[in-house]
């Protein structure tokens, strides 16, 4: 039977940070395309809100898992349970923490926590799902980076460093895993009106600044990211690997 374009029928997806502002859009797009989605997030209450926001006909294919990416030991146990139930076909490393303050005010513990959650957890999950993808000679790994890598933002050093690491991992993994039919790509969101924007003291002024810099004169929404990730996860994107796709309304151009 021929699959519909961008169909995810039969695919099992693990998405971290799935109950956050962008995560909801990612999970929804994948569910609507037919995937079974394991939605992993730290906040159990937000996960339940995600479940409630999903259309009833999609809900049977949504599995929610409350997990702390900062706890490597606990994450290992939860991942083993998930893999015991079947292969993960697509991994979306979306979760990240986003502290904002001048560099000299960060403690060593804070720097380590950002790297653990934003980078090391993604590497841990990649290691876990790789054998299954390799065995079936098909897989998709999609990392969420950021346009902050362009250098236009202050007070975000640990976050920007973590996203640089994720971009490097994307390219290294793409080179190494391609021989097994596994593609690895990244999506770099622009400025989206999510909880992360609450760090800005003047939300209206910030929104005006965003629109001034974007080529597309509207604010992005989570569905924009969901659509990009759906494409990269699909069979139609099988010849794309090692790339970093900016989804930012034409803000950063390469």
List keywords for this structure.
7 helices; 254 residues; 15% strand; alpha/beta; single chain
Question: Can you describe what's shown?
Answer:
Strand 1, helix 1 (21-32) and strand 2 form a beta-alpha-beta unit. The chain has a seven-stranded parallel β-sheet, sandwiched between helices. The chain has helices at 21-32, 44-53, 72-84, 108-136, 157-177, 203-213, 222-233; strands spanning 12-16, 36-41, 62-66, 90-93, 139-144, 182-189, 244-247. The model has no long low-confidence stretch (mean pLDDT 93). It is α/β, with parallel strands linked by helices and 254 residues long. It is built from seven helices and seven strands; from the N terminus they run E-H-E-H-E-H-E-H-E-H-E-H-H-E.
* Radius of gyration using CA atoms only: 17 Å
Termini Cα gap: 39 Å
Low-confidence stretches: none
N-to-C order of helices and strands:
EHEHEHEHEHEHHE
- Main sheet, how many strands, which sense, barrel? 7 strands, parallel
Tell me, rounded to a whole number, the average pLDDT: 93
Overall geometry: globular
**Total count of helical runs of at least 4 residues:** 7
Percent strand: 5-15%
Biggest sheet, spatial arrangement of strands: 3-2-1-4-5-6-7
- Please count the beta strands (DSSP E, at least 2 residues each): 7
Assembly classification: single chain
Helix coverage percent = 40-55%
Content-based structural category: alpha/beta
């Amino acid at each position: 039977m021929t699959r519909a374009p961008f169909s995810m029928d039969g695919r099992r997806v693990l998405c971290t940070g799935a109950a956050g502002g962008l995560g909801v859009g990612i999970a929804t797009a994948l569910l609507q395309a037919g995937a079974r989605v394991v939605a992993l997030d730290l906040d159990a209450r937000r996960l339940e809100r995600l479940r409630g926001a999903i259309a009833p006909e999609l809900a049977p294919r949504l599995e929610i898992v409350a997990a702390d990416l900062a706890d490597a030991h606990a994450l290992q146990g939860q991942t083993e349970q998930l893999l015991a139930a079947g292969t993960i076909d697509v991994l979306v490393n979306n979760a990240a923490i986003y502290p904002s303050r001048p560099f000299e005010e960060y403690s060593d513990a804070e720097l380590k926590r950002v790297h653990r959650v934003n980078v090391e957890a993604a590497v841990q999950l990649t290691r876990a799902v790789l054998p299954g993808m390799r065995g079936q000679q098909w897989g998709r790994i999609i990392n969420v980076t950021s346009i902050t890598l362009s250098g236009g933002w202050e007070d975000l050093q640990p976050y920007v460093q973590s996203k640089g690491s994720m971009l490097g991992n994307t390219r290294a993994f793409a080179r190494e895993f391609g021989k097994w039919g596994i593609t690895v790509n990244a999506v770099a969101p622009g400025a989206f009106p999510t909880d992360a924007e609450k760090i800005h003291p003047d939300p209206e002024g910030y929104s005006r600044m965003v629109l001034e810099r974007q080529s597309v004169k509207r604010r992005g929404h989570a569905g924009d990211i969901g659509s990009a990730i759906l494409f990269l996860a699909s069979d139609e994107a099988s010849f794309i690997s090692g790339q970093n796709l900016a989804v930012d309304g034409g803000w950063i151009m390469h």
